[in-house]
Automatic annotation (TrEMBL):
It comes from Rotaria magnacalcarata. This is Uncharacterized protein. SUPFAM superfamilies: ADP-ribosylation, TPR-like. SMART domains: TPR. The lineage of its organism: Eukaryota, Metazoa, Spiralia, Gnathifera, Rotifera. PANTHER family: NEPHROCYSTIN-3, TETRATRICOPEPTIDE REPEAT PROTEIN (AFU_ORTHOLOGUE AFUA_6G03870).
Amino acid sequence: MGFFIRDLHRQIQDLHIEATGKLNSLTVYRGQGMMKNEFEKMKKSKGGLLSLNSFLSTSTDQQVSLSFAHHALENPQVVGILFEMQIDSTVSSTPFAFLGTTSYFSDKEKEVLFSMNTIFRIGTMGKIEDRLWRVTLVLTSDNDQQLKDLTEHIREETSGSTGWHRLGRLMITMSEFSQAEKVYNALLDLSSSDDCQEVSDLYHQLGFIHKENGDLGNALSYYQKALELQEKSSDPSYSSLTTTYINIGEAHREKGDYSTALNFYEKALEIQKKTLPPNHISLATTFNCMGLVHRDNGDHSKALVFYEKTLEIQKNALPANHPSLATTFNCIGAVYDSMGDYINALSFYKRTLEIQQTSLPSNHPSFAATYNNIGAIHDSMGDSWTALGFYKKTLEIELKSLPANHPSLGTTYNNMAMAFEGLEQYQSAVECAERAVDIGLEALGPSNAQVKRYESYLNRISRHV
C-alpha cells in the first residue's frame, strides 16, 4: 500500500510539473456529504484551516460536483456540501494534476486530483437550499505564517529519535494511550540498561501514560525511576529533569498533596530561570502548573497571577489556535467558576471550546473536560436541562476514550445525577449516582473523600424514589 501511495504521489507531481506555467489560477469543485455535527464545527471555523488527509478528487465542472452533493442528501443525517476551491499556483507548490483521458472516467468528470495533505483556508459559506451548502476554500500559500507556526509546533510535539519514538509521541498526542504504552514497553524491552538517558525517557513517557489513564500510583513509580536515573547521570539533561519534576508535581496535585506538588514545580522553575530566557514557552508550562496548585488549594488570586504569566508568554510564542492557549483559557475559567463569577467563567470556557473545535479531533478527551465545565456552569446558574446536555456529551467521549473505571467517569455520572435531580427525574438521578459510587469504589477505594461524597449524595437522593 505504501508503494502505491508513493507512486501515485509521484505521478501527480510529474503531471503537475508538466502543466506548470500553463495555468496560474483556476477554480475546482467537489461535492460530498458531511455529518451535521461536523458541518456545525466547520461553520464555527470560518477563516481557519482545513486539512484533507487523503488524495482529493475534484472537478472543473460545477454541475458534476453538485450532483455528488445532491446524492449525499439521501442520508438524512448528512448535509450536502459543494466545495468551491480557489487555486493559485503562483503562491502554492501543492501538487495537483488534470487527469483528462488519464482518468478511469475519461474526461466526463473533468477530474483534477490533488495529492495527500492538501490544506485550505475556509472562506465564505452560503446556503443553496435546505441541507445543501456552498463552501469556498482557498488553497494555502507556501508562506502562510499561521500554517508554518502550527506545523512547527506539531512537529515539536511529535518529535523523537526514531520512527518508533515518533509513533509513541503521536499516539500520546492523539490520546491513544493503550497503543502508546505498547510502543514504549516494546522500546523499553529493546533498550540497553547502560543507556540511562534512553531508559529514563521511556520511564517518563510510561509514567505520563499511566497518569493520563488515572493510575497515579504507577505514574509516580515510573516518574521516580526516571528521576533516579536522571539525577545519577554524570551529564544530566536539565530539560528532562525539569519535565520530570513537573510531571511528578502534577501527579501529587491530582492526589491532593498540594505542598509536595508545589515543591516539585519550584524545583523545575529554579532550573528554568537559570537555563532559559524569561519568555521561553517552557516557563509558561510551569507557571500554569503553579496556578493549578493555588487554584485547587483555594487561593484564587495567586492562581490568576500565575495564569496571567502563562497567557502572556503563550500569546507571544504560539499560534492563536494552539491547544495550549485553550488549556490556559480553561484554567482561568475554572478560577472564575470557583469564585462564583459564572459569566466570566462561561466566557473563558467558550473560548477554550472554540480553539478545540479548530485544532483537535471531535472525540479528543479535552472536549469532555470542556463540555463538563460548561455543563457545571449552567448547573450552577440553575439551568439543569442545558447542563445535562453538556454532561451527556462529556460521557459520550469519556466512554470511548477512558478505561471503564476511570475516576472522571464517576465525576460525570455524579454530575448527571445532580442535573436529573434539578429536573425532578429522581429515578434517573439514582441510577447515575449508583454508577458514580461503583466507579469511585473501584478506582479510588472506600476511604477516598470523593467516594464518601458520592455515597452521601446517593443516600440522600434515594429517599425521593
